[in-house]
Write a structure and sequence with these properties.
46% of the residues lie in helices and 11% in strands. The protein has 242 residues and is α/β, with parallel strands linked by helices. Helix 10 links the parallel strand 4 and strand 5.
């Protein structure tokens, strides 16, 4: 699987560049910068944007992979999941709470802002920037646990989307990083999508020229992966009132 994520040394160099530009913007690796960007709100949508739409909400909390960096709004994977929800006749609204460059720490800090009373499901798609920056897997696990705990306190169902770390920090780091998601899914009893970019990462035909952000075809494949996990979760919830 790791070969699919970062197949060669040049791509590792590219990942570092993307982390400081496309994934991280001017935020670099500074926690203070994370907080400043979070205070500006997400790049796509907010609870207020839902207006008078009273449908229950599926919140997609993520980074640039969720925000749809380099794509039109309707080509990002949360919008494509919305299309599937509508086509299948479910009465839910997807709120794209993706922020380019966000880490698990940033996601935890802005979670209260990202949720409102209409939220019923939280999709957690964070960790890519933690891995690119070599941040502590233990800290990442604590942040994700905090996100899940808050969601559970509010009665939300949680879909946790896993990510893979590039191998340049060594095999021990890679193993610890990957284990965070499986361990949390088991400990917190949440649904797990093991790898958000499965069948997309490292494949040129599914990525933009930066080699890391999915293009429209890649986002469609990500949406298929998410929908396969999300649909049974929606089926298990009480049917929303018309």
């Amino acid at each position: 699987m790791l070969r699919r994520v970062v197949g060669a040394l040049p791509l590792l160099v590219l990942l570092s560049l993307v982390c400081s530009s496309g994934c991280g913007g001017d935020r670099a690796a500074s926690p203070a910068a994370d907080g400043a960007a979070a205070s500006r709100g997400p790049s796509r949508g907010s609870p207020a944007d839902l207006g008078d739409d009273d449908r229950p909400v599926v919140v997609a909390l993520g980074d640039s992979l969720t925000a749809g960096l380099g794509l039109s709004t309707d080509a990002a994977w949360p919008a494509l999941v919305q299309n599937r929800i509508d086509a299948e006749g479910y009465r839910y609204r997807v709120a794209n709470m993706g922020v380019s460059g966000d880490t698990t720490a940033g996601g935890l800090r802005r979670l209260e802002w990202a949720l409102d009373d209409r939220a019923r499901v939280l999709i957690v798609a964070l960790g890519a920037n933690d891995g690119l920056r070599g941040l502590s897997p233990d800290a990442m696990k604590a942040n994700l646990a905090g996100i899940i705990d808050l969601a559970h306190e509010r009665g939300l169902s949680v879909l946790l989307c896993g990510m893979e770390a590039p191998p340049n920090f060594g095999p021990a780091y890679t193993r610890r990083f990957r284990a965070v998601y499986a361990d949390l899914a088991r400990e917190k009893r949440v649904e797990l999508l093991p790898f958000l970019l499965d069948g997309v990462a490292g494949l040129a035909e599914y990525n933009q020229t930066d080699g890391i952000h999915p293009n429209a075809a890649g986002a469609s494949r990500v949406a298929d992966l998410v929908w396969a996990k999300l649909q049974p979760m929606l089926d298990a919830l009480p049917e929303p009132a018309p």
